[in-house]
Design goal:
132 residues, mainly beta, 5-stranded mixed β-sheet
Length: 132
């Protein structure tokens, strides 16, 4: 299904960025932030962010600041490879997630509702900010 992207978001965005946070040895979290110049209009509701082949709901921090979090697993599954196929029985099938959108690494899509109509806005040239 081909989605139509809005060329402009209906409200001025001050900044969009993300940062990675280590969450132990086997995973990390990407926190994705959207900051608006003014509080978000009552007729606009942020729904989801699509980023790095994942989707996550948007949470309101303040009326001007919103956040989405993505869990990244660093754990590699071990596969048993053997000339005897019976010994490979316990291998799990890899789960390959196909994203709803074909995005580059520095792009994301914001799904939102404006007057109860679902819209999509493509965010480009995303920057990673290091943790302070």
């Amino acid at each position: 299904m081909k989605q139509e992207f809005q060329t402009e978001f209906p409200q001025e965005i001050q900044s969009v960025f993300y940062h990675k946070e280590k969450n132990g040895m086997e995973s990390s979290v990407i926190n994705f932030y959207i900051e608006f110049k003014n509080p978000l209009s009552a007729n606009i509701k942020l729904e989801k962010i699509y980023f790095h082949n994942q989707e996550s709901p948007v949470q309101e921090i303040t009326p001007k600041d919103f956040k989405s979090s993505f869990l990244q697993s660093n754990k590699e599954e071990d596969f048993i490879m053997d000339s005897n196929p019976a010994k490979e029985y316990g291998n799990k099938t890899p789960v390959i997630l196909k994203s709803k959108f074909d995005l580059k690494l520095n792009e994301a899509v914001l799904e939102y509702k404006q007057d109860n109509k679902t819209q999509f806005f493509k965010i480009t040239n995303l920057k990673e900010k290091p943790l302070r």
